[in-house]
Each structure stands twice: as structure tokens, then as C-alpha cells.
Design goal:
The chain has 186 residues and is of the alpha+beta class. It is built from 6 helices and 5 strands. The protein has helices at residues 3-22, 27-43, 59-85, 105-117, 147-165, 168-185, and strands at 48-49, 52-53, 94-99, 121-127, 136-141. Strand 1 and strand 2 form a beta hairpin. It is globular.
């Protein structure tokens, strides 16, 4: 879809979401929906702020990201709550380095914030090499089980974030990395 087609489609989609949320398809509601959609498109326009580019937005993939993140949020809240109220909490903390697959400050920011917002985990540091290679996120984990499960969880967030907010090139790069990994595992 070209940008000239994509923008009106996004405005129509956002207007429909607005109308469904309010449960009102009257003229006033649709006009308000268009106004809100135009504002969202204006503030969400592609930007290049200190090299951080989020030039793509895929609504369905963003919903998948939000759904996955919400499930992880609920699970981790319950897990941390159980740890807190347990008579003898068995806490095993660890600091895990997670090498990312995509060299994008925007995607790394989304993933690092999602990790920090999830109870029981905290992004302690992000190391971004100057040579353009992907960053490494250092994650503190409250209930540590094994390195690979922590990495798998963070990399799943990265995959979903790239699908939702990444450029076409970033999605292509990630597909190559995932394909190479699955070939190596076979």
C-alpha cells in the first residue's frame, strides 16, 4: 500500500475505532472521530529524533503486541504478588544480557520499556555499539529460572515490536535472523 492510500485508510480505520468505542455512528461522533484521527496521525507522523526512527505502524500487529504484553503483565503481576505474600519466598535474582536482533533505537526503546513495565523485571542498562550492530539489553529478573527463557521472552517482545512498529527493512532483517536460527537448530 502506498503512503497516499495508507494515510486515508488509517484515518478511516481510526475513525471507525472511535465510533465503535463510543457506540455512536452519528454525524457529530464521526466528525469528532475524524478530528481525533487527524490529531493521532499528526502526532504519530514519521520522525527522526536523534536517529530514532519509528516510520511504520501496523495496527493489527500493534494489537498483537499489546495483547501479548497485557498477558505477560497479568502473569507477572500474579507471580510477583504470590512471591510477596508467600510465607517463605524463594527468590533467585539474576542479571541477564539479551542481545537484540535489530539495530533500531526505537525498537530497543519499546522493548526496554515493556520489560521495565512488567513486574519482576527491570531494564538495567542498554549497550548500543557505535558500529551499528544491534544493542544488548541488560535485564534484572526477580524470579530467575534460566538464561534462555529470559532471552526468549525479551526476544519475543522484540519480534512483536518489530512487526508492529518496525520498518519493512527491519522486518526483513528479523525474518532472516529467525530463519537462520531455525536452520541452525534443525
Amino acid at each position: 500500500m502506498t503512503p497516499t492510500v495508507r494515510l486515508p485508510a488509517l484515518i478511516i480505520w481510526l475513525t471507525l475505532v472511535w465510533a465503535f468505542l463510543w457506540g455512536d455512528f452519528g454525524l457529530a461522533s464521526l466528525v469528532a472521530g475524524v478530528a481525533v484521527a487527524l490529531f493521532i496521525v499528526w502526532i504519530g507522523r514519521p520522525a527522526d529524533v536523534h536517529g530514532m526512527q519509528l516510520t511504520s505502524f501496523h495496527p493489527l500487529s500493534a494489537l498483537v503486541f499489546l495483547g501479548y504484553f497485557s498477558v505477560q503483565l497479568v502473569k507477572s503481576n500474579l507471580h510477583v504478588a504470590w512471591t510477596v505474600i508467600s510465607p517463605r519466598p524463594d527468590v533467585h535474582t539474576a542479571l541477564v544480557a539479551v542481545p537484540m536482533h535489530v539495530a533500531s533505537e526505537g525498537i530497543v526503546t519499546v522493548v526496554a520499556n515493556a520489560v521495565t513495565l512488567t513486574p519482576g523485571t527491570l531494564t538495567v542498562d542498554v549497550h548500543e555499539p557505535d558500529d551499528g550492530t544491534p544493542a544488548v539489553i541488560y535485564v534484572h529478573v526477580l524470579q530467575f529460572e534460566d538464561v534462555e527463557s529470559v532471552r526468549a521472552d525479551v526476544l519475543q517482545l522484540e519480534r512483536l515490536a518489530v512487526r508492529a512498529f518496525g520498518t519493512k527493512q527491519q522486518r526483513h532483517d528479523l525474518d532472516k535472523v529467525v530463519a537462520a536460527r531455525s536452520e541452525g537448530a534443525s
